[in-house]
Amino acid sequence: MASKESSMSFSRKSYRLTSDAEKSRVTGIVHEKLLNDYLHRIFSSPEHAPTAATSRKPLNFQNLPEHLDQLLHVEDEDEESQGQVEGRLGPSTVVLDHTGGFEGLLLVDDDLLGVIGHSNFGTIRSTTCVYKGKWVYEVLISSQGLMQIGWCTINCRFNQEEGVGDTHNSYAYDGNRVRKWNVTTTNYGKAWAAGDIVSCLIDLDDGTLSFCLNGVSLGTAFENLSRGLGMAYFPAISLSFKESVAFNFGSRPLRYPVAGYRPLQDPPHADLVRAQKLLGCFRAVLSVELDPVEGRLVEKDSSEWQLQGQPTVLLTLAHIFHRFAPLLRKVYLVEAVLMSFLRGVVEAGSPAQAQSVVRQVLDLLWLFMEDYEVQDCLKQLMMSLLRLYRFSPIVPDLGLQIHYLRLTIAILRHEKSRKFLLSNVLFDVLRSVVFFYIKSPLRVEEAGLQELIPTTWWPHRSGREGKDSKDVKDETAEERVRRRAYERGCQRLKKRIEVVEELQVQILKLLLNNKDDNGGEASRYIFLTKFRKFLQENASGRGNMSMLCPPEYMVCFLHRLISALRYYWDEYKASNPHAAFSEEAYIPPQVFYNGKVDYFDLQRLGGLLSHLRKTLKDDLASKANILIDPLELQAATMDDLDEDEEPAPAAAQRPMQALAMGGVLPLPRPSWLSSPTLGRANRFLSTAAVSLMTPRRPLSTSEKVKVRTLSAEQRTREDIEGSHWNEGLLLGRPPEEPEQPLTENSLLEVLDGAVMMYNLSVHQQLGKMVGVSDDVNEYAMALRDTEDKLRRCPKRRNDILAELTKSQKVFSEKLDHLSRRLAWVHATVYSQEKMLDIYWLLRVCLRTVEHGDRTGSLFAFMPEFYLSVAINSYSALKNYFGPVHSMEELPGYEETLTRLAAILAKHFADTRIVGTDIRDSLMQALASYVCYPHSLRAVERIPEEQRVAMVRSLLAPYEQRPWAQTNWILVRLWRGCGFGYRYTRLPHLLKTKPEDANLPSLQKPCPSTLLQQHMAELLREGPDVAPSFLNSVLNQLNWAFSEFIGMIQEIQQAAERLERNFVDSRQLKVCATCFDLSVSLLRVLEMTITLVPDIFLDWARPTSEMLLRRLAQLLNQVLNRVTAERNLFDRVVTLRLPGLESVDHYPILVAVTGILVRLLAHGPASGRERATSVLLADPCFQLSSICYLLGQPEPPAPGTALPAPDRKRFSLQSYTDYISAEELAQVEQMLAHLTSASAQAAAASLPTSEEDLCPICYAHPISAVFQPCGHKSCKACINQHLMNNKDCFFCKATIVSVEDWEKAASASTTTSSAA
């Protein structure tokens, strides 16, 4: 209760209403005349004119009850109570028929007014029908999907494909497809949106049926309805999966009543009249003050009225509430009477005046009504408030939303009411997160956006990194004027939205108040309990979309929560100098392992929590002084084994009727399954047998450790904040953490929840909302194309001009609509303030990861979502908030990039992280990071030790881990330095599909010479680094190219069949992926040869010759497959199949050429000679393949110049925009060198006996013998084999040593051992 209330020493029991004569003596405080005047002033009848004081019957507290009975008497009460009305059949209380009037699978709310579709196309009707007269009911649209709303007769039969409107005598309106249905369908009405109200009207006197949308008539939909004997119409709806609505048959006041039409359920007229009269009496009390000294009544403003303990006033209020209290428990009366009164208070006065009146009203409610009466009243009041806020139309000044939020704030400022609502209503019964949502208007005309933003403008191609953008300086004067006018309109809209957002933040500040602990727990700690359960419902319900809080609500809730959180964080800092500012916020690592915060079943970096507690129990004891009880660990293990068994209590409580056909199942479910009635849904309707599954394990699991661990519901303030003997959430502080707390522990838990919220659905919603901007870009491009066609169209073609002009008008109108909607999205989702919130979360996650990393092995306890949020929030800032706001403008941008780079570089190969998904996310994030110049420079700024460690991890053998992303990172570091490798878009695609040159995924090459230098140093460092890495690269290249060739053979065979057939798109995608992998692996080999040529050419190294021979073998294989005349590769490229656009000669041939040029045209002569000899010695070498690179079918004669290339052939000379003249000269030099060398080798070659050839490759003479088995091969084959296997080719014996074959007969000297 408010502070004013707490100072009162009286209670309701002191003012029981009796007729005892002794009670009248209490009125002696004021004389009888003043009392008579006061009571007549309060309880005067509005139907009668005021009479003279001499003719009035004297009033006192003895005859006041009799006077009140006369005042509240209603003439037609007996007729109303019977509930029988001509033209209507069925119960007087109209609800949905959950016993038999439905088809399919449906979820119905407690009040039987809200419904959610849970099958393909479920149908349900009401319990009451009409056969005569004019009737109306309303439907609150909660989701804008596929639904058909209307009327049907009892004889209509529906199924999962046919619903209301698909049969005779059923009629429906479908605002999703904007059509009306009665067996056939035609266009009707306009599109509805979530938050709209559909009024369904039926006139059985004239036989017509019509609909209204938000009070605006859509016109007559159907005429000549069937009437007569046996024809009665039920309200009915058919809705698809996950769609939800709420009906109002009259149990609440209709939002848009229609003159002449009657709601299906009669309002409680008698109670309504009584409640309105009693409200008038109550308002009179608030506007009149007794002056016993002067003996007169003083008129006062209700905002100045104060309850001062006068017995006369108290007894008067007691008489009023004795009759008013039972009425205030009824839904209709709360909304029609109390809500209307409070709305009037808020709308008429200033916020301070409204707050004063609302506080007085709530004080009086709690004083004069029983607790259960006040609680029911407050529950209905908040439900009504939330419904009104959610379904109010968007007006230009957002006035309706502002009034409802101000009233909500006024109610929540009352301490006792706030604590009750927090404990029992806001998160348990209501979708209270709706209060923090600002719905987006799909119809900009009705929202007044045309007046706010009269001039529209749309940005050109987004200026994000990697995208081409039109510079502002290229704007015309007209475009500049339009853009500035549009920006001014956007600012006007933003200022109005900020008013609503500030009110929403005030609500959360009230809920996070921790100073109101007088006589109970503070609001913040109640909020924490409910907030944690809210997160648990959304985290554990990922598989069931209907279990989740709508992501658009979650986005708004997150931003308001951050604002309120930072306010209290900095407020605490102001009074505690040792604390940290919110700009320095992070979550201490002990929160993740001390069991004080429940993370449900969310994955930890090191795996399952139970596993971590067993394997790291010694580290917990030594670093954090936390002991794990072995008995409890054993119990936890057994619990894991038995988790599939159903708990006995749960089985005992399962109702038998749960298995009945269409039975009502009590299903404990979160409030997100509630329809717009805002009550918790718990009826599960099905026309098929339904079985109810129990959860696999309880939702609130207390961790079994030797510390005080409690579930969220059991915790107290001391358990969270701690005391002198207990550090609360910070129990188990590691030595790396400071002793001084950052802030209040409760705020740390709120911050942890905010990070979890972003991970659950906020990031996905931010990406989804970018679709509006993409739509603007697409329509703007279409409009520009249309305008270009108009300019080029001959004036004599009037027919074409007319069509183009029509298209231009359509695109312009659509762009006007989308640009105004985009302004709304930017103001509510992508504003500068929202960007700063996401940036703050990113920095919080970075600090949290950095502090957790310092704890060593305990880092494994951190939930995975902290790394996920760090990665995703950076992606959102970079990709979603442009081009209006740039990440580069954020404070500390460079430092943040560097810190994130350090985390990615260190943890992408961190052995403490075991989850496959999070490891892949880290790898992909690093791969994306090195694509952009700014982030790549950040990687180069991290400490050298971390850079070297990162490159060392990248050079680990590919067989031991997923290698495609690693290889792609290395390629990005090289791109821009390789032979012909300076392109952004593949050249052949620019020729065939030039319109795709501005694809958003393309980035300009930005190689890193610094990281290349680290790579070179590491490859030279040890004898095993380079061989193991290159051997794995060559193995993967052999696999990828072989798979690619095999797949294009299958594709070619399918294309040549006479019968019509289709190649699987997935097969095409895999084929293109293998090709891309082959090219990227070749580029990594080119980089390696360029940086460290000695690895291949310095034969003093034991593995150099073998690596060079393997490389030559693979290069010849690729060249022969790609360059052969009219070969398989040529035919598949010519087909130009969708999905194989990247497959072409250029990318793979320039990669091979780059390697050959580095081997044969660079470096010392000795190295070139070795490379030439190995290349020519390979039996697959064909000089014509080298000639193919320059478009020549045959090598030129010695001493003659190269002829001009054939234009029909592939030639590197055709790509002068991508290959420099110097590079072409090197290719010509290489061709001349190989032509000369091959001629010399052919002349000097001697015939070799087949018995002396290696039985493996048949290309080289036998030169090695294996011990102990004695089998023989050439050195190249056995050395390559021993890189991956220790068994003999032939007999599978383990090879101990390899000896030189020439020396084997005489000296038997061991030349190398099988390592």
Automatic annotation (TrEMBL):
It comes from the Eukaryota. Residues 1254-1292 form the RING-type domain. GO terms for biological process: protein ubiquitination; proteolysis involved in protein catabolic process. It is found in: Cytoplasm. It holds the Pfam family SPRY. Keywords: Cytoplasm, Metal-binding, Methylation, Phosphoprotein, Transferase, Ubl conjugation, Ubl conjugation pathway, Zinc, Zinc-finger. GO terms for molecular function: ubiquitin protein ligase activity; zinc ion binding. Gene3D superfamilies: 2.60.120.920, Zinc/RING finger domain, C3HC4 (zinc finger) (3.30.40.10). Its EC number is 2.3.2.27. Residues 74-254 form the B30.2/SPRY domain. One of its GO terms (cellular component) is cytoplasm. Pathway: Protein modification; protein ubiquitination. Transmembrane segments: none annotated. CDD domains: RING-HC_RNF123, SPRY_RNF123. It catalyses: S-ubiquitinyl-[E2 ubiquitin-conjugating enzyme]-L-cysteine + [acceptor protein]-L-lysine = [E2 ubiquitin-conjugating enzyme]-L-cysteine + N(6)-ubiquitinyl-[acceptor protein]-L-lysine. Component of the KPC complex composed of RNF123/KPC1 and UBAC1/KPC2. Interacts with UBAC1 and CDKN1B via its N-terminal domain. Interacts with RIGI (via N-terminus) and IFIH1 (via N-terminus). This is E3 ubiquitin-protein ligase RNF123. It comes from Neomonachus schauinslandi. The gene is RNF123.
